[in-house]
């Protein structure tokens, strides 16, 4: 119904027609509590204890040397709503409380400061002169922001999204080379050296009432929105275009109403990329002489067009405005971001997250180092991982609903077209997914050399010798897996009196856990729920968009065969696969991704509970392990893979071809090379029980098999307990 969309807006049509239809016909699985109920079913089990590691205790602010009381266990256990609320809401409430006291909690430096350093380099300025110059720039922005509040202006977190109204200097730099297009996709218009040298993104905002993504952005001064808001509130004036070059009314109206996102679902779906403004209006898009001020009294009832006075027929300049009612819920209306479309924003955010690693994980002798450690998970989950999770919510919702209206070819065109479709959103969602998986599979900072396992498969693992390592990975490529303390040299400690003051760095193990949470989370939480069919009613997660890839990654995690999904060396450089692709390429020099037992267990538990979205049970089916004779389903021999534990005599079964079957198949190969196989063998033992590869002995394989079976048993417990999850009695 394009006519309805043009009259009332795309999102009004979505709320009144599309979502109710999706609700009635079950297009996406509703958010009915089953995922949380499946997690709750594991409360009190041995698996819950394995998930509550000392590292997680410390990072959640609980002394690992103390026994847990009921409340602490509730907060620490990843199986409870209290845990999720703590990691997602604690930091948000902290920041909101600080904001009421005019405190801006940007504890991590951004790379724009490096740009400032280059700007002042070679000027022969003294340290005090540089300090004064930087302080002036930052204080100017802060004072302008606070004066704005005094004049009645709310926060406007859409100021960084509103490319139509960026500073003139932005568009002067952007158009200087004669090309203006999306930064990604076919015929991309990449950022130029002149744009970088000209500090392009320092002009990429419309209001000082945003929380800027860089210290230097608001230093340019008031934005066009600030002036328009003051003219409106104090002067009774509305900014209008002298010539809007025939831009359609729905584009002008939806740009302001929908946070700069203009979309139509007609015969084919279309969207409006911000560079289309320049295609349609040229330099008149930003030139001051193409804008003037009309009286509010001369505007129509919707304030869209002047209907009287000297500006009769002129169209209002649309401004993006969004504040606390819906910020940080998707890929727009974000705090601490920059960039005019989702692709630009995600590139900026991911670059910043990498830059922040040093400042957020290394206290560097700060007296407040305990704050880094005890608040690490809540602080970083809300700032990084929950944001990357939310980036996919609306994308996943639309993608699934649109399959009912359009052909695969039409959707492929829409989701890849960066100018008239959602190509930049696709790029951003894929980048977020890749970042989360890379985090989960990030190698440690150490020397690596080749190590061969019991069946001859090689992987680059931590090299214990002084020489002979294949590669030395530093913090530019890898991350410290474990948390460590520094005790100084020769007994001289300069970090504090107590050992807890001597924190050197926080282990990336915690980031891996947070990445697993974000990858598996299907809960959507949009604030303004207007109807029962609101997006908050749906389960939407990365499995909706990358189900096949997630199942491939799961099989690698369970089997230990990382040849297609693990980090690898190519020409001496560490690389990661594109996790949004087919994941079919086998790499030779795979580097140990440090996907340890706890990482595997978190993945299994959270995945089994949450990856049952879109009425697709395939993840659960392929990751389940049953105990034969206890709770196993009826499967014929061609459908199942079985393994008998030589220690307990219990037989475990999985659906053949899946991740669980790969886990059991590895156990079977271990068994064949263990002492158990020889003890039970009657004939043809040489073929049935081959020798382990290389320096491995059968006794050593026995030990590896026993350790491997711990994961098998844990998965079987998860399978058994989650079969009985009851959303009405959690």
Description:
This protein has 730 residues and is mainly α. It folds into 4 domains: 1-30, no CATH class; 104-315, no CATH class; 342-598, no CATH class; 616-722, no CATH class. The protein contains 28 helices and 14 strands. The strands form 6 sheets. Strands 6-5-7 form a 3-stranded antiparallel β-sheet, with no helix packed on it. Strands 12-14-13 form a 3-stranded antiparallel β-sheet. A hairpin with a 5-residue loop joins strand 5 and strand 6. The longest helix has 25 residues, at 698-722. It is globular, with a radius of gyration of 28 Å. The model is unreliable at 527-533 and 724-730 (pLDDT under 50).
Distance between the termini: 42 Å
What's the number of extended β-strand segments?
14
**Shape type:** globular
Main sheet summary: 3 strands, antiparallel
Beta-strand proportion: 5-15%
Helix count, DSSP H or I runs of 4 or more residues: 28
If you average the pLDDT, what whole number results?
Answer: 86
In the predicted model, the low-confidence regions spanning at least 5 consecutive residues are 527-533, 724-730
> What structural class do the secondary elements suggest?
mainly alpha
How many domains in all?
Answer: 4
Determine Rg (CA atoms, Å): 28 Å
Helical coverage, percent range: 40-55%
Could you give the order of strands across the largest sheet?
Answer: 6-5-7
